[in-house]
Amino acid sequence: MDNYILECCVDSAESALTAAEKGADRLELCAGLIIGGITPGIALFEQIRRYSSIPIRVLLRPRFGDFLYTEHEFEILKREAELFRKAGAQGIVIGCLTKEGSLHIPQMKALMEAAGDMKVTLHRAFDVCANPFETYEQARELGIDTILTSGQEETCLKGIELLKKLGKYRKEKGGPKLMAGAGITPEVIRQFLIQTDITCYHMSAKKLADSGMCYRKEGVPMGIPAMSEYSIFRTDGETVAKAKKILSEWRGLNN
């Protein structure tokens, strides 16, 4: 039986340490959560590792947007995989597609090779692929450990029917673990535990924290105009603790 895993997606040392303290089993480390996550700086990884031994899988995504990568972007991804492997990451989180919407097998093979003995998660590139069952089979052949997916919908709750079908396919064929993500809350985890065989859950548990700035110059956006420069995403430790409690109780009932 698969282990029950609560993975928290974080983009700061503060959020990472809160998630670890409140019971997360693993982190997905990124930068720029507000744009869906991009590759973090290696100094952020090192800072978290200095204060916590929690397993970390690092998101490798060179930019916002789709997963059709130029040769320069792909070379950057390969180099980042090597750097984070040497830095001691437990795994990487990757995904490269062709323009037709299938996995880009040569690029994925090269990244798997660069990963060495690290675990590999196929990220939500899976959710925008043309054929999820074909892509699952390709991921199995590549030796990918986990697929992070919302069931090809905006949220995993909307995609639960596909996730059920993929779970059945995995039970029959074997292959990567399925990790539900997008819209995960403690209550959604409870629903999934009742309705599916999925044991891995990916959540950011993010909340908006107010900046410590006293002087505030308004009307000068540095990025997305709709987002205040004086609001910061942070992981909500209480949400993480509630999710962990639900998983722990369910594990106890089913062991």
From TrEMBL:
SUPFAM superfamilies: CutC-like. One of its GO terms (cellular component) is cytoplasm. The keyword Cytoplasm applies. Its main location: cytoplasm. The keyword Transmembrane helix does not apply. Keywords: Cytoplasm. It is found in: Cytoplasm. One of its GO terms (molecular function) is copper ion binding. Pfam families: CutC. Belongs to the CutC family. This is PF03932 family protein CutC.
